[in-house]
Amino acid sequence: MNKSEIIKQVAAETKLPATTVSRVLESIFGTMEKALISRDKVVISGFGTWTTSDRRGFSGNNPRTGESIEVPARTIPVFRAGKKLKGLLNVDKLK
């Protein structure tokens, strides 16, 4: 499911115009992005938690040329599913 499909689904369920749903969704994503850029944790109870993690740089080799390269350190987003979401995904496996 992509963003436009989510917008259509939410618009149908809430009877709100798709343009309104799109603006709200963009605002939510923008707020989450700003929080993660500020290194804040984003928690949606029952769904999951987004955090950031620092990956250190390392030396590697280009697989095509064998040339040695330096991979720089970087920060990545991390998502950890909440208990409720995990339970919903595994409901048939628990029986």
Mean pLDDT score: 95
Query: What's the level 1 CATH class of the largest domain?
Result: Few Secondary Structures
Helix content: 40-55%
Give the CATH topology of the largest domain. Answer: HU Protein, Chain A
Poorly predicted residue ranges:
none
Number of helices: 3
Cα-to-Cα separation, first versus last residue: 28 Å
Beta-strand content bin: 25-35%
Gyration radius, to the nearest Å? Answer: 19 Å
E-strand count: 5
Q: What is the approximate shape?
A: extended
Q: Biggest sheet: strands side by side, in what order? A: 1-2-5
CATH architecture of the largest domain: Irregular
At a glance:
This protein has three helices and five strands. The strands form two sheets. A three-stranded antiparallel β-sheet has the order 1-2-5.
Polypeptide structure, described:
The protein has helices spanning 3-14, 18-37, 83-89; strands spanning 42-44, 48-55, 58-61, 68-71, 74-81. It has 95 residues and is an alpha+beta fold. It has two domains: 1-38; 41-95, IHF-like DNA-binding proteins (HU Protein, Chain A, Irregular). Strand 3 (58-61) and strand 4 (68-71) form a beta hairpin. Helix 1 packs across helix 2. It is extended. The protein starts with a helix and ends in a 6-residue tail after the last helix.
